[in-house]
Amino acid sequence: MPNTPVSPDATLPFAGAITDVAGIEVGHFSDTRRPTGCTVVIARDGAVGGVDVRGAAPGTRETDLLEPGNLVQHVHAILLSGGSAWGLAAADGAVRWLEERGVGLDVRYGTLPIVPAAVLFDLPLGDARIRPDAAAGYAACEAASRDAPAEGNVGAGSGALVGKLFGIGHAMKGGIGNASVVVDGITVGALVACNALGDVVDPNTGRIVAGSRRDDGHTLRDARRALLAGESPFFPLAGTNTTLGVIATDARLDKAQAQRLAMAGNAGLARAINPVHTMSDGDVMFALATQRAAPAIDALAMTVLCTAAAEVVARATLRAVQAARSVTVDGWYVPAACDLE
What is the fold of 18-340? Predict the structure, then answer.
């Protein structure tokens, strides 16, 4: 399978990266045959994981084991993929790659990597029979590093679109973005693949950056106001959208705290996407705690950590569309935010 690396977007001011968190690596696979791909977030030494599923049409793998009351305490990677439910096969490649390197849970008869996964729907662009598979997941792991990951039309964001509420012909290009902050010596980073039904909003200004366009193709409709004014939306099939995210921190968290961190991350999505968590989105937010920092987090520190998580998710979501670039597939031109500025 072809894999063409994409450099981070030099036109955007650096906002930190999820790989600023000690113990985290990120790799992308981008398929050159059509806009699709997958992204892996690796924690080789294991990380306490959590998840919060808010979208009504999720496509996931091994999310139940992240519930605080369930047995497995550590995960070794998170796989985000395009290709709708077919794209879950990419996680098999990540499992194989990690197993070959002795990374995983000792189950006596072998070393079993724990790789929860989630998918987004990117089938409208190009030949829908081309979607990430096990080889794609393996290639994403091969490309993984501690470097700041590429953003925009890469990995799980390759075929992402946003603003489809009034028809896919009015949509704009989505993508993948990341950001990080350091608060009281604790690093919190996020990576978001934005393929939302709704508009993407700058949370600091309230300005719509990308989303549903008007019939002229050059101005933004403002989906929220249009809906409230009584305009009739176009209802796509359930699950044909979805925003996926991973929050990582070096804080020492238990599974209940990791779940709470994922929940806070979805609050960040709500700041940057409107409407969000719809019946046609399968939004999923993961959290990873690599346990590299000390001491353990108490209730007050957890409040600060959740505030940071929501912030970096909102920033990463905005960057996903800021770094995106227009595409033309089979004569269909899809503009990006930079084309309307």
Answer: L-amino peptidase D-ALA esterase/amidase (3.60.70)
